[in-house]
Design a protein that fits this description.
The complex is a heterodimer of chains A (441) and B (512). Chain A is 32% helix and 26% strand. Chain A contains 14 helices and 22 strands. A six-stranded parallel β-sheet of chain A has the order 3-2-1-4-5-6, sandwiched between helices. In chain A, strands 14-13-12-15-16-17 form a six-stranded parallel β-sheet, with helices on both faces. A five-stranded antiparallel β-sheet of chain A has the order 7-8-11-9-10, with helices on one face. Chain A is globular and about 65 Å long. In chain B, strand 2 and strand 3 form a beta hairpin. The radius of gyration of chain B is 23 Å and the shape is globular. Chain B has 512 residues and is mainly alpha-helical. Helix content of chain B is 64%, strand content 1%. Chain B has a two-stranded antiparallel ribbon. The chains are: A alpha/beta (441), B mainly alpha (512). At the A-B interface, helix 9 and strand 14 of A face strand 1 of B. Strand 14 of chain A pairs antiparallel with strand 1 of chain B.
């Protein structure tokens, strides 16, 4: 596959690392000092120039491209690159990196002619919610920009009697959720209404973030949900994290040093408590009982500030700390200081791009139990035999639709809902039956 | 003419940075147009065989004076935001003057003194409903209807009316409208000023017509034997503006229960935000209205007030059964919406009930309604401000925007709300003190609670007070000085204090 990569920064470098072996990669960047080390280390061609220029792209041979990845730190330049590439070579797949969640929203509504958009902020937020979102979960993942959550639970003796030992259709399951699979021993069943959960089962649930929380409480009563998360820094990353956590019903406190920014965030996020403070004054930390927070997340722009604030928060008694680290070498510094989790937004972004670049047609979005099960995100084509059918009468053939995304909004279908062409279906299936499911839709 | 040119020069000089002549010209023009309102009492007079001449003459005087002043002050003017305050303040004073003319010219003995006539007219236009009449049923049909009609004109606002019909006010009308519309300015009027004014008036007319039809029907079908078509119109004219003038000496006490319940319904409508009513009834979005925080609090407070009154009336054995509930609801709604009708003489109710009613006088209608007083939304916002204050005492760094219906209310508006309530209480207290002092000076018997009620009822544009000024009584015993104070309170209250107060500040008149 012929891949063009615009931007040789941290994200670009990580992508080159992952893709250079199997593919023919061309890297374009304005800065020759960034291109040079890449061309020495990997077998890639490099071109110095503006990736948002039609002349440069044409010269580089974009007409023959299969895939264009625009991952500079400038959103608008990335979008222009993708648009020019589409104009010159209409069959090119384009991936754009953005730091602005608004572009993501516009794209989701179909108003940007780009095949895939990755927002560092949103990916970071997803990574964090995967870490702390659902206490009782073995594994969690989010789809459809955070609107749909997949959670894997182990049912045990302590799980609530309202769901264990009774047929699913009679059990009082949380709204907006579906048991997509029951793994019992070596076999997996796609459950119907008469299926019964038993202790020892491992189950896969697809549902809204709120439903995932409700499930957690049913599976392990008293595990409680995360009620008190403190986020230091209300920039784009901090705000995106806060929004994601609030959507899951988690209580969030935000601490922001700039008064204007604090005010703007307080206006925007109705449910969050916002404080105007730099977060490193002991008096403030003491008065607001920051030490009692279950999780503290450090999302300020400056690694050193994050490091200091995180260490201080630890001293004040915060049990679990997550830091956003921008400079890769700093990761070790954070780990030495006892920070529990570090997340590098560029790394997360690059991974997401690579995941999509590997196979742009099916959006295989998650794997469970090693690689035995997969969750697919497939857009239904008009001719599919399932289109126009209600979910009640849809035959289960190797997969189960847990949620659909229609016009950018997630719907958790009930029996009388009807699948339409163009809906994005989130499907749980066994890996060996992926092809079958794909063809059916 | 050269003299006038000189005055014009002075008014434009750097010592006076308000276009005085321009403001005068606009006020005169509005008065000139307003003289057309005399057509209604003229028609009534002709219909009932009374003399139309007092009204013809009043109209002619208003038209002539307005026209002459407008002619003398003609020319290039700039009516901007600054002149708006003056125009609004003067227009209301002038309108009350126009309204007083027929009272004087008909030779009605109860209103023969100009100050009394002016009081009655100001009480009418400001939709207060306080009266100096001692024998309401003694006045002629045409004059009684004029009295009701002034409330109807004043209810939606003279400026709003002018905006709806006068083409020259198209530019710069926003400031005028904002000075006159009740309630703090939270929702930006996004549509054109003229359209807004027209819509408000159409809705107002529609509700008035509906009430008139229902009440007439009650009269004609015998549901209410005392209700005549004349009374139906008279009360329709004073319910929607939350006015409270009645053609009956004992207000609406004599009408049947069905009539009283109907009036309750229309008072509740009149005390609600007209923009919300427009969305609910015309655009068919009742859900938006149902979710409105102010409307919910308004209805909640009405329910609470009525419940308290009903319990007091029942436990003290003043009234029983349906009557207790009806009068409790009626009096609560009438007071909170600042209408001022009475379905019973609450003056003779136990002191606990009358105190509760005086307390209700401080609530007021909704923003954007025809009701007066503090307004529910200001109480709502003040509550939120206070709650935030408590929050920030414990958590000094917390950033907590105040929201109304989910939208953030900017800090300037919040300050204005707090300032308004302070001013309202301040002016009310000064009013009580002056009334008490003047009563002592002139030997008028005015109990402390009566003085409080008199000041509260006039600044809130409600109507009846307590004691001799109670719902079945009259404001006639007040001395001339007190009458002037009460007129001032009505004027201040109707225009929501601040647009009038700025006229008394140095910074309004000068640039430096």
């Amino acid at each position: 596959v012929k891949i063009f990569l615009i931007g040789a920064g941290q994200v670009g470098t990580t992508i080159v690392q992952a893709l250079h072996d199997e593919h023919d990669v061309t890297v374009i960047d304005l800065d020759p000092t960034r291109l040079e080390p890449l061309s020495y280390r990997y077998d890639v061609s490099t071109l110095e120039g503006n990736g948002a220029s039609r002349r440069v792209l044409a010269e580089a041979g974009i007409a023959a491209a299969d895939l264009l990845i625009a991952c500079t730190s400038r959103d608008e330049a990335n979008l222009v690159s993708a648009m020019i590439a589409k104009a010159i070579a209409p069959r090119t797949t384009t991936i754009v990196r953005t730091t602005n969640p608004e572009y993501l929203e516009v794209w989701r509504e179909g108003q940007l002619d780009v095949d895939f958009i990755v927002s560092s902020e949103i990916e970071t937020a997803h990574a964090i919610s995967r870490t702390i979102g659902v206490p009782a979960a073995r594994q969690t993942d989010v789809f459809a920009e955070g609107q749909v959550q997949l959670v894997e639970f182990d049912v045990d003796e302590g799980s609530s009697g309202t769901i264990v030992g009774v047929p699913l259709r009679e059990a009082r399951l949380p709204k907006e959720s579906k048991v997509a699979g029951i793994i019992r021993g070596d076999s997996m069943t796609l459950p119907r209404g008469d299926a019964v959960l038993r202790p020892g089962d491992r189950i896969v649930v697809i549902g809204s973030p709120a439903a995932a929380q409700a499930w957690s409480e049913l599976i392990a009563p008293g595990s409680g949900k995360v009620r008190d998360v403190v986020i230091f820094g209300a920039g784009r990353a901090g705000t995106a994290i806060a929004r994601q956590l609030l959507d899951q019903g988690i209580g969030v406190r935000l601490i922001e040093a700039s008064p204007e920014r604090a005010r703007a965030v307080a206006d925007e996020l109705t449910e969050a408590r916002v404080f105007n403070s730099n977060g490193i004054e002991p008096d403030f930390l003491e008065r607001e009982r920051i030490g009692e927070a279950q999780v503290a997340i450090f999302a300020m722009r400056d690694d050193m500030k994050n490091h200091y604030a995180a260490t201080l928060a630890k001293i004040h008694g915060v049990r679990f700390t997550i830091a956003i680290v921008h400079d890769p070498p700093a990761i070790e510094v954070f780990e030495r200081a006892g920070i529990d989790v570090t997340i590098n937004p560029r790394q997360v972004t690059a991974e997401e791009i690579v995941r999509f670049a590997h196979d742009p047609r099916t959006q295989q979005v998650a794997m469970l139990e090693g690689d035995r099960y997969e969750v697919l995100d497939i857009t239904t084509r008009p001719g599919s035999e399932y289109v126009g059918k209600s979910f009640a009468e849809m035959p289960i053939r190797g997969g189960l639709i847990g949620a659909i995304v229609r016009d950018g909004r997630a719907i958790f279908p009930r029996g009388d809902d009807v699948l339409r062409a163009g809906d994005r279906a989130i499907i749980f299936t066994e890996s060996k039956r992926v092809v079958e499911v794909e063809q059916a839709l | 003419v050269s003299e006038l040119a000189r005055v014009r020069q002075v008014s434009r000089s750097r010592f006076l940075s308000v276009d005085l002549l321009g403001a005068t010209n606009l006020v005169a023009t509005i008065v000139m147009y307003l003289s057309a309102a005399m057509l209604l009492p003229i028609a009534i007079a002709l219909g009932y065989g009374e003399s139309p001449w007092p009204f013809v003459l009043s109209g002619a005087i208003a038209f002539g004076t307005g026209g002459l002043v407008a002619y003398l002050t003609r020319g290039e003017h700039r009516i901007g935001a600054r002149e708006g305050f003056l125009v609004v303040g003067l227009t209301w004073l002038a309108a009350a003057g126009l309204g007083a003319l027929p009272y004087l010219l008909t030779g009605e003995p109860q209103l023969s003194r100009p100050l009394d006539a002016y009081f009655e007219s100001m009480s009418g236009f400001t939709t207060t409903g306080a009266s100096v009449l001692t024998d309401i049923e003694g006045v002629s049909r045409s004059l009684a209807m004029w009295r009701q009609f002034t409330q109807w004109l004043g209810g939606m606002g003279i400026i709003v009316l002018a905006l709806a019909v006068l083409p020259r006010l198209r530019v710069g009308g926003r400031q005028l409208l904002e000075s006159e519309l009740p309630g703090p300015e939270i929702e930006n009027l996004k549509t054109r000023i003229r359209d807004t004014a027209r819509r408000l008036w159409l809705l107002y007319i529609a509700f008035t017509a509906a009430e008139f039809l229902i009440l007439s029907l009650f009269g004609l079908t015998g549901v209410d034997e005392r209700m005549t078509v004349f009374d139906a119109a008279a009360h329709a004219f004073t319910t929607m503006p939350t006015g409270g003038f009645s053609t009956q000496a004992r207000s609406v006490e004599i009408f049947s229960a069905a009539t009283q319940w109907t009036i309750v319904l229309f008072m509740i409508i009149a005390g609600a935000n007209f923009a919300l009513l427009y969305r609910a009834f015309v655009r068919g979005q009742p859900r938006v209205a149902a979710r409105d925080e102010e409307l919910r609090l308004y209805l909640g407070l009405l329910g609470l007030g009525a419940a308290v009154l009903a319990v007091e009336l029942l436990t003290e054995n003043v009234l029983a059964g349906e009557a207790a509930v009806r009068h409790a609801v009626f009096q609560t709604v009438s007071t909170v919406t600042t209408t001022g009708y009475a379905s019973a003489d609450f003056n003779v109710w136990p002191v606990l009930t009358t105190m509760a009613i005086v307390g209700l006088m401080f609530l007021g209608g909704s923003a954007g309604s025809t009701g007066g007083g503090v307004k529910i939304v200001r109480h709502l916002l003040l509550g939120k401000i206070l709650r935030r204050e408590l929050d920030q005492t414990v958590h000094p760094e917390v950033v907590a925007p105040v929201r109304l219906n989910g939208a953030v209310v900017d800090e300037r508006t919040l300050r204005a709300v707090a300032a308004f309530i302070l001013l309202y209480i301040g002016i009310f207290v000064v009013g009580v003190a002056l009334l008490s002092l003047d009563a002592a000076r002139t030997g008028v018997e005015l109990a402390p609670l009566d003085a409080i009620a008199a000041a509260a009822t006039t600044i809130g544009n409600i109507g009846p007070g307590l004691g001799f000024a109670g719902p079945m009584g009259s404001f006639e015993p007040f001395s001339d000085v007190s009458t002037v104070i009460l007129i001032g309170l009505m004027w201040f209250g109707r225009l929501e204090l601040i647009p009038i107060l700025v006229l008394f500040s140095r910074h309004y008149w000068r640039s430096t």
